[in-house]
Design a protein that fits this description.
single chain, 278 residues, alpha/beta, eight-stranded mixed beta sheet, two-stranded antiparallel sheet, 10 strands, disordered N terminus
């Protein structure tokens, strides 16, 4: 690192660090080799959210080329299972469950990394696939003002922008649950990617009516993940939110195979930001 002396484990591919806001959670990061604190305003931040298998470091490592090419710090949070009750593994996907606010944990991680490296974390890129895709689209509903762009990959269960259905099927009771109005104007300003493999058609996991977070009506959003992502896209577009939508031929539920599209999207967002246009 130039311009700032850092310990070995704080540079390039970092070790796993506990979140000071809530030590039940942790994160790792990647810091580009070119990092120079004297030019910290030239560095962006991208947050990559894992799926159910919690392979946060693998996702971090998959973005090293993007980080180097675009001067972007990568933050990969770890939301372990068993937070709201023993052996549960899905609660983080729904962002706020019982008294747990996973969105605030993520924002604390962003603040901690931004402060440590002296970059602006006011707005950042956000991607998640599968369970991570569930988390990121619901986070988008709560904090669009914090996002440079959001990439939603193959969520199994969706919260569409249906103002006749309750959370988390829809958003009719958004104000009651979150104490504010749904920020549609802010959402319309954020570039959105939705990405999925065209062969992502297995249904055994997403149609399990014994799953802890099952709500009757989920089955109406689509038979499989492709159908459900199309439903989500359509609900965005009805509300005036532009979506770049990609179905990748020959790809099933394979999170790493969609990443070239995600990186291209993020690169476009960063270039558009630097020129002052979308």
């Amino acid at each position: 690192m130039k311009g700032k002396k850092a310990l070995f484990f704080e540079s390039k591919s970092t070790t796993q660090f506990v979140c000071q806001y809530d030590p039940r959670f942790s994160f790792c990061a990647y810091i580009p080799e070119s990092f120079d604190e004297s030019k910290r305003d030239q560095y962006a931040l991208a947050v990559i959210v894992h799926g159910s298998m919690r392979n946060a470091q693998q996702y971090r490592d998959a973005f090293l080329d993007f980080a180097e090419a675009t001067n972007t710090i990568i933050l990969a949070p770890l939301f372990p299972g068993g937070i709201t009750e023993p052996w549960e593994s899905d609660s983080y996907k729904f962002v706020r469950v019982k008294d747990m606010e996973y969105d605030q944990v993520l924002l604390a991680m962003v603040d901690e990394v931004s402060a440590h490296y002296g970059i602006s974390g006011e707005r950042f890129l956000l991607h998640g696939f599968s369970g991570g895709g569930q988390f990121v689209h619901r986070f988008f509903y709560l904090h669009p003002e914090r996002l440079l762009g959001v990439s939603i990959g193959a969520p199994g269960n969706i919260t569409d922008l249906d103002q006749t259905k309750p959370w988390y099927l829809g958003v009719s009771d958004y104000g009651e649950k979150f104490g504010t109005v749904l920020p549609l104007e802010e959402m319309r300003r954020v570039p959105v990617l939705m990405v999925i493999g065209s062969d992502d058609l297995e249904t055994w996991m997403i149609n399990d009516k014994q799953a802890p977070f099952w709500i009757d009506g989920l089955e109406l959003t689509g038979d499989n993940r492709v159908d459900r992502l199309r439903t989500l896209r359509d609900s965005f577009e009805r509300e005036g939110i532009s979506v770049r939508y990609e179905e990748l031929p020959g790809v099933s539920h394979e999170g790493f195979k969609v990443l070239p599209v995600v990186k291209d999207f993020f690169t476009h967002v960063l270039r558009s930001q630097s020129t002052g246009s979308r």
